[in-house]
TrEMBL record:
Its main location: cytoplasm. NCBIfam families: DnaA. It holds the Pfam family Bac_DnaA_C. It is found in: Cytoplasm. Residues 1-79 are annotated as: Domain I, interacts with DnaA modulators. Plays an essential role in the initiation and regulation of chromosomal replication. ATP-DnaA binds to the origin of replication (oriC) to initiate formation of the DNA replication initiation complex once per cell cycle. Binds the DnaA box (a 9 base pair repeat at the origin) and separates the double-stranded (ds)DNA. Forms a right-handed helical filament on oriC DNA; dsDNA binds to the exterior of the filament while single-stranded (ss)DNA is stabiized in the filament's interior. Belongs to the DnaA family. Residues 84-107 are annotated as: Disordered. This is Chromosomal replication initiator protein DnaA. GO terms for biological process: DNA replication initiation; regulation of DNA replication. Oligomerizes as a right-handed, spiral filament on DNA at oriC.
Length: 469
């Protein structure tokens, strides 16, 4: 069976990918319709689940028929290459179900038996499968300056859902910075602490789809009712309802009901509420009722922690200089950081080579487009003075002209955000100021950004310019 699956897989992916990800797999047994395969590490399993689960599903269904299941057996291998056989079994359903099936909210008229796999008839009311990924716990979410506020607010909410002023809790930040992870962590912890509470995680995309289906089947009221009975509602990527009036109306309705009844709402978004577009004002204002907490880009120290944790979980060791190398090159996004580490371990596992700086360099290249020079203080002063049409000499002077002061403060702010330079040397470079002036400037810039639209636009324009350097 497995050989046939492999032939199918081989025809559908590149040679390189096949060699890397499929050749090392051994089939171990076939039980009814469950095929067990042995993979070299947990990373490997995660990679397969992330990238090839659909392909595998098709292959297995072809070979075994409907209801085919895949069970992963992880062969742990520590850094020295000693094998510890069969330490962990993970049924493939753990993740793939969440991705591949949609939750149907039960329709009371049509489906009194609630045969849907995600809705199990309960003793009291309904039991709803929360759609939570059990890997995304607080324990696995490492703390750093970039996520401290969001993490502690999330913990507070998880320990007292509906009972804090953080309602809704809105977690926002760029791609791959941990929004989905934190959202799941809250859900998991609530379920752990309050087993009677109904928790539901849903992406805004799926929510929208369900709503459209409901309307077309004349089930809109059931749809609303279903969401109104949960105690904790988590909607991931809420920005995706932008421009969708019907979905916004229905969400507004559900939100109000939950909020009025002391139920907890958790939202994630790729931007702050002030920057969201095409979302009704009444919703935006509700998003701001509770707390908006940002997940920023992790600093170097946090990146190191995250990598170390990942390695530790997989029983792999890596030299400090390689850790440093990877963490200093891949800076923007934790998903990429994880991806790079996974490939690094995978490559070394298959080629049976130790992880060297050379190997790290090759792999990191795939993640960071062009290994750019870091942005210097001079670059920052050039870009800022150019943007505000001020001479660099003026920027560095003692001038108190309003526009010059503003540009100088912004330059200091970016110097602190972007470069690794100390406040003292930033101050010395930009106009002979001391470090407390620099700190003060950074605070002013942060505050003004929040209160002043025009000002925020300056900062955003400049951010783009720095990205393009
Ligand atoms: P987002 O939803 O913001 O795009 P995710 O929550 O999907 O990002 O996170 C991307 C990956 O990074 C996930 O595998 C997640 O587990 C991991 N991750 C993010 N933040 C952390 C953290 N603080 N500690 C450990 N892993 C993290
Ligand atoms: Mg996400």
């Amino acid at each position: 069976v497995w050989d046939n699956c492999l032939t199918f897989v081989k025809d559908n992916i590149s040679d390189q990918a096949y060699k890397t990800w499929f050749q090392p797999i051994n089939a171990v047994k076939l039980n009814d319709n469950a095929l067990s395969i042995q993979v070299p590490s947990k990373f490997f399993y995660e990679w397969l689940e992330e990238h090839y689960v659909d392909l595998l599903k098709v292959a297995l269904t072809k070979e075994i028929g409907k209801g085919a299941k895949l069970v992963y057996v992880i062969r742990m291998e520590n850094a020295k290459g000693n094998r510890q056989p069969f330490t962990e079994k993970i049924p493939s359903t753990q993740r793939s179900n969440v991705n591949s099936q949609s939750i149907d909210f039960p329709s009371r008229q049509k489906n009194p038996e609630l045969r849907n796999p995600f809705v199990i008839p309960g003793i009291r009311n309904l039991k709803i499968d929360s759609q939570l990924n059990s890997n995304y716990t607080f324990d696995n979410f490492l703390e750093g300056t970039s996520n401290r506020l969001a993490r502690s607010a999330s913990l507070a909410v998880a320990n007292k859902p509906g009972g804090t002023s953080f309602n809704p809790l809105l977690i926002f930040g760029g791609v791959g910075l941990g929004k989905t992870h934190l959202a799941h962590a809250i859900g998991l912890q609530v379920k752990d602490k309050f087993p009677d509470k109904t928790v539901l995680y849903i992406s805004a995309d799926k929510f929208t789809q369900q709503h459209i289906d409901a309307v077309s089947k004349n089930n809109r009221n059931d749809f609303i009712h279903f969401y109104q009975i949960v105690d904790v509602l988590i909607v991931d990527d809420i920005q995706l309802i932008s421009g969708k009036k019907g979905t916004q109306d229905v969400f507004f309705h559900i939100f109000n009901h939950l909020h009025q009844n002391g139920k907890q709402v958790i939202l994630t978004s790729d931007k702050a509420p002030v920057d969201m577009q095409d979302i009704q004002q009444r919703l935006l204002s509700r998003f701001k009722w509770g707390l908006s907490a940002e997940l920023a880009q992790p600093d170097f120290e946090t990146r190191i922690k995250i990598i170390k944790n990942k390695l530790y979980n997989d029983g792999v060791e890596m030299a400090d200089e390689i850790l440093d190398y990877v963490a200093s090159r891949i800076t923007a996004n934790i998903r990429e950081l994880e991806g790079a580490i996974i490939s690094l371990i995978a490559h070394s596992t298959f080629s049976k080579k130790e992880i060297t700086i050379d190997l790290a360099e090759q792999i990191v290249k795939n993640y960071v487009k062009n290994n750019k020079k870091p942005i210097s203080l001079d670059d920052i002063q050039n870009v800022v003075s150019d943007y505000f049409h001020i001479e660099i000499e003026e920027l560095q002077s003692k001038s108190r002209k309003r526009n010059v002061v503003q540009a100088r403060q912004i330059a200091m702010y970016f110097a602190k955000e972007i470069t690794k330079t100390s406040l003292t040397s930033i101050g010395r470079h930009i106009g002979q100021r001391d470090h407390s002036t620099v700190l003060h400037s950074c605070k002013i810039v942060s505050n003004l950004q929040e209160s002043d639209k025009q000002y925020r636009k300056f900062i955003q324009d400049l951010e783009i310019k720095f990205k393009q350097l």
